[in-house]
């Protein structure tokens, strides 16, 4: 299966060169729209109905914002995707592939074939804010920041406990420091807006980091 | 107070047996108490097997193995704990059971003996309150399996003296473990994070966000965790997760600690996890099939 890419610039999933970008051809069975304005580029796709799949790179928005929704009957050959990446850290090898209730299996399989062919791993999920990983880890990171304020343990002991006890490669505090606490604020604020649930509300330390970053930027 | 030479372990389930291995391996005289002789016999046999494997793998010498086995005694009589300088409780997670044990131990053990509890969710201060010596009481939570995991979460109760905590900490290090200090808080550090996180994963399945295999793949590949949350839950057992949630939610009223309704439905259907052959996945032998 061949694929082509429409690049709108500043892709969070592919900030540097990658086999997926290198393997594209001029005309393809699958179209990938990547970059900041990937959703807007959907209008540029010609013969959209005849493609095996069209993949839109997503930020924190839902796929439905680009495709429309209809009584849980939504779903076409258009899918969303994002390579998981924590803040300023390098992108992981994991792509969250967003489908809708009536997305045909053929479109999902076409998308998987392209992504897996470039060495990426794919997890399929439905069209929810935060998708899989952010919905699972952001409340845990918030809890870690709140527990630090409450003096449950030192930052080092908390990190060490989760590494030794659960085999995590990195503790939550060190990880947030490395990838950017201000970015954690942005992600959790978007999820808190979407769900209104306190576990997503940005923890105090993330709020402080964001305010400092804004101050510094003037 | 004399220094800690003899360590007692009360209760020889999986956890107690593991702690006994840790203590004997480090050269402490180790007394294991349980009311069931057959449980003691079984744990002694498993301990010998574990040491024999350690020798095979070159992690222990023959001489050290002989010495460690020599250090270990088992008893069905509580009086046997009278010579211990530190007693670690690894009996059933029930406040009444633990109070009863420590009340009796308080009569048998000399005044310098430090009491410790391996509880994972109960309050150290509350257990200590029924021990007759709440100033000489600490929380000492080992990870499963204790003989392989270095981490021990240690917490003082509200009345624990600094001296008691320092001595217990030193004993923990002398056992070759890595202690971390935490507050007397339900779930301490590890379970305080893990129980709600696992519930969040169950809620993603409940809400139809993604299939278990996709959630696990995302977490492992995206974050480099050794296991996905639903695989881990199948290993822990859904019935155990329910008990952990009830204990933690009962104390904290933290919404994320509340057990998702799906867990009760799965338990009712016999989907307990690996032990029943089906949980979020189905198991045949050692092979796993995504469901």
Description:
Chain A is α/β, with parallel strands linked by helices and 218 residues long. Chain A folds into two domains: 124 residues, Rossmann fold (3-Layer(aba) Sandwich); 84 residues, N-(1-d-carboxylethyl)-l-norvaline Dehydrogenase, domain 2. Chain A has eight helices and six strands, in the order E-H-E-E-H-E-E-H-E-H-H-H-H-H. A six-stranded mixed β-sheet of chain A has the order 1-2-3-4-5-6, with helices on one face. In chain A, helix 4 crosses helix 7 and helix 7 crosses helix 8. Chain A is elongated and about 60 Å long. Chain B is of the alpha/beta class and 291 residues long. Chain B has two domains: 176 residues, Rossmann fold; 88 residues, N-(1-d-carboxylethyl)-l-norvaline Dehydrogenase, domain 2 (Orthogonal Bundle). In chain B, helix 6 links the parallel strand 7 and strand 8. The chains are: A alpha/beta (218), B alpha/beta (291). Chains A and B meet through strand 6, helix 4 and helix 5 of A and strand 8, helix 7 and helix 8 of B.
Total count of domains of chain B: 2
> What average pLDDT do the residues of chain B reach?
94
The two chains with the largest interface, and their residue counts, are:
A-B, 42 and 41 residues
Query: What portion of residues of chain B belong to β-strands?
Result: 15-25%
Side-by-side strand order of the widest sheet of chain B: 3-2-1-4-5-6-7-8
Annotated CATH topology of the largest domain in chain B: Rossmann fold
SS content category of chain B: alpha/beta
Helix content of chain B: 40-55%
The main sheet of chain A orders its strands as 1-2-3-4-5-6
Structural class of chain A: alpha/beta
**Share in β-strands of chain A:** 15-25%
What's the total count of β strands of chain A? 6
Instruction: State the CATH superfamily name of the largest domain in chain B.
Output: NAD(P)-binding Rossmann-like Domain
Low-pLDDT sequence parts of chain B: none
CA radius of gyration of chain A is: 19 Å
Largest sheet descriptor of chain B: 8 strands, mixed
Give the C-level CATH assignment of the largest domain in chain B. Answer: Alpha Beta
Spans of at least 5 consecutive residues with low confidence of chain A: none
């Amino acid at each position: 299966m061949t694929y082509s890419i429409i690049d709108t610039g500043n892709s969070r999933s592919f900030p540097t060169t990658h086999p997926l970008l290198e393997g594209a051809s001029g005309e393809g069975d699958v179209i990938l729209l990547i970059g900041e304005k990937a959703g807007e580029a959907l209008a540029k796709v010609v013969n959209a109905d005849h493609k095996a799949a069209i993949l839109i790179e997503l930020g924190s928005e839902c796929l439905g914002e680009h495709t429309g929704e209809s009584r849980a009957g939504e779903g076409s050959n258009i899918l969303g995707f994002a390579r998981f990446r924590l803040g300023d850290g390098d992108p992981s090898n994991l792509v969250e592939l967003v489908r809708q209730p009536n997305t045909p299996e053929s479109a999902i399989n076409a998308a998987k074939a392209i992504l897996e062919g470039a060495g990426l791993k794919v997890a399929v999920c439905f069209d929810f804010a935060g998708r899989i990983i952010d919905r699972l880890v952001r409340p845990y990171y918030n809890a870690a920041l709140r527990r630090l304020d409450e003096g449950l343990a030192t930052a080092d002991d908390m990190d060490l406990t989760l590494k030794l006890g659960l085999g995590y490669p990195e503790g939550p505090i060190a990880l947030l420091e490395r990838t950017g606490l201000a970015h954690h604020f942005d992600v959790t604020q978007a999820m808190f807006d979407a769900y209104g649930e306190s576990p997503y509300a940005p923890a105090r330390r993330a709020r402080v980091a964001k305010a400092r970053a804004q101050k510094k930027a003037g | 107070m004399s220094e800690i030479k003899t360590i007692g372990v009360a209760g020889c389930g999986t956890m107690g047996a593991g702690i006994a291995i840790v203590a004997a391996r480090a050269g402490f005289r180790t007394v294991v108490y349980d009311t069931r002789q057959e449980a003691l016999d079984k744990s002694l046999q498993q301990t010998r097997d574990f040491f024999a494997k350690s020798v095979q793998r070159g992690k222990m010498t023959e001489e050290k193995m002989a010495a460690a086995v020599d250090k270990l005694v088992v008893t069905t009589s509580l009086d046997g704990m009278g010579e211990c300088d530190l007693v670690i409780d690894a009996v059933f997670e029930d406040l009444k059971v633990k109070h009863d044990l420590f009340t009796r131990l308080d009569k048998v053990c000399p005044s310098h003996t430090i009491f410790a509890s391996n509880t994972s969710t109960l309050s150290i201060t509350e257990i200590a309150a029924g021990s007759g010596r709440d100033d000489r009481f600490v929380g000492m939570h080992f990870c499963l399996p204790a003989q392989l995991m270095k981490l021990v979460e240690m917490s003082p109760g509200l009345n624990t003296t600094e001296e008691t905590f320092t001595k217990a900490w030193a004993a923990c290090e002398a056992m070759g473990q890595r202690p971390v200090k935490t507050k007397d808080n339900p779930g301490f550090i590890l379970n305080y994070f893990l129980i709600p996180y696992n519930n969040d994963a169950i809620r993603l399945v409940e809400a139809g966000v993604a299939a278990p295999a996709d959630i696990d793949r995302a977490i492992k590949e995206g974050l480099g965790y050794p296991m996905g949350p639903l695989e881990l839950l199948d290993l822990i057992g859904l019935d155990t997760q329910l008990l952990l949630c009830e204990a933690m939610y009962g104390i904290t009223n933290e919404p994320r600690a509340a057990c998702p309704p799906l867990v009760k439905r799965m338990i009712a259907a016999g989907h307990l996890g690996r032990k029943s052959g089906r949980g979020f996945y189905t198991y045949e032998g050692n092979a796993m099939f995504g469901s």
